[in-house]
Design brief:
The chain is α+β, with helices and mostly antiparallel strands and 366 residues long. The chain has 13 helices and 10 strands. Strands 2-1-4-5 form a 4-stranded mixed sheet, with no helix packed on it. The chain is globular, with a radius of gyration of 23 Å.
Length: 366
């Protein structure tokens, strides 16, 4: 392709993208992507250009708008995002390209857990969510080729139900004892230096690694007070699920190298053995790897070695019939569901029939 033909193709691509985005992106360099949305180069040395391409940013913008959600510390919501990007997109891209972009701190939100404790979420600003989503869209195809077939969480075309059925398959093949592994406050305890090291093995564009590091170190606002984030991956950001899988893929590879059967969904992991004694040996050795190599902490209280019929995984339990292992909703999950339905259908909550119907419908779909 000669220079004139290349320029014509680039101009055409930019015109199409401008029409779709309705953003002013004059002066933006647009690099062509393949159909899978990645660079298809082994070095990925120009990954930032693909992240900041109009096509990729438009996809990211649409995803953030679709997901809606509350705003971050600047108060901007998704309805205001388009107007902001129309005026500031070129400046935003230039700042990121020059390495001068500084993500804003996330907004701390706490949600209740089943045990009465609180889960801490960090809500980024909507602009930061667009950039994080743009990064995620380019990194996901690269890392999907590396991820284990036994990993099911936060991945395309994979689900919790598939993970549970894989547990059932292992039980039916004689692997009836499990190490039910629980990582203590995983998202809060991720060693950022270790994560950056793991990322740098694959991502050869140092600008992208640096940008991700800035997001990890952006900090959090708690009741208008800024707190540093020297550890962890804040739950609530668009990058967090992918980064958690990249970190725990190290565990997956170690388990595969040792020849273990396992199923992992995010930070919930079940390792399968044929005897209780073997399970106990595995627990001891893999705990040492997790804590000494990955610098994560195994929750000794919640991590157990047990027969598969005595564990709960992703809300499901297992039992044995004449034809083998079967799956059922775990008793605790069933009681929680009934309690929630009683709450939603109560006539003492002040809701009208339409609101009650809407809330119940949302819960059933969820």
């Amino acid at each position: 392709m000669n220079v004139r033909e290349q320029k014509t193709e680039q101009d055409t691509c930019q015109q199409i993208d401008r029409a779709a985005l309705e953003w002013e992106v004059e002066g933006q360099t647009f690099l062509r992507m393949n159909e899978k949305g990645d660079t298809n180069t082994s070095e990925h040395t120009k990954l930032l250009e693909f992240i900041l391409s109009p096509t990729n940013l438009h996809r990211a913008y649409k995803r953030v708008r679709q997901n809606e959600g509350s705003g971050g510390i600047d108060g901007m919501d998704t309805n205001e995002l388009r107007t902001y990007l129309q005026s500031h997109l070129e400046e935003l891209i230039a700042t990121v390209q020059k390495g001068k972009y500084k993500p804003q701190a996330v907004r701390r939100v706490e949600i209740s857990k089943e045990n009465g404790k609180k889960r801490q979420l960090g809500i980024p600003t909507v602009v930061d969510r667009v950039i994080q989503q743009a990064i995620t869209q380019q990194l996901s195809p690269i890392y999907e080729r590396q991820f284990s077939a036994s990993s099911y969480g936060f991945r395309p075309k994979r689900s919790a139900h598939q993970a549970v059925m894989q547990c059932q398959k292992s039980a039916n093949e004689g692997y009836i004892y499990v190490v039910d592994m629980d990582l203590e406050k995983f998202f809060d305890q991720v060693n950022q230096s270790k994560l950056i090291e793991v990322l740098s093995r694959t991502i050869k564009d140092g600008r992208v690694v640096s940008l991700i590091h800035k997001y990890l170190r952006a900090g959090v606002m708690v009741q208008k007070q800024y707190e540093e984030t020297l550890m962890g991956v804040p739950q609530g950001g668009n990058l967090s699920p992918l980064l958690s899988n990249i970190m725990l893929n190290e565990l997956d590879k170690e388990l595969e190298k040792r020849g273990h059967r396992f199923v992992r969904y995010a930070d919930d992991c079940m390792i399968f053995c044929k005897s209780k004694r073997a399970s106990e040996r595995v627990l001891g050795s893999i705990t040492k790897y997790i804590e000494q190599t990955l610098y994560l902490k195994v929750n000794e209280e919640k991590t157990v070695v047990a027969h598969i019929k005595d564990v709960k995984f992703l809300g499901y339990g297992f039992y044995f019939a004449e034809d083998g292992c079967r799956i059922r909703l775990h008793g605790k999950s069933e009681e929680k569901m009934k309690s929630k339905i009683r709450e939603l259908t109560s006539r003492s909550n002040g809701w009208g029939n339409e609101q009650r119907k809407e809330k119940l419908g949302q819960y059933i779909i969820g």
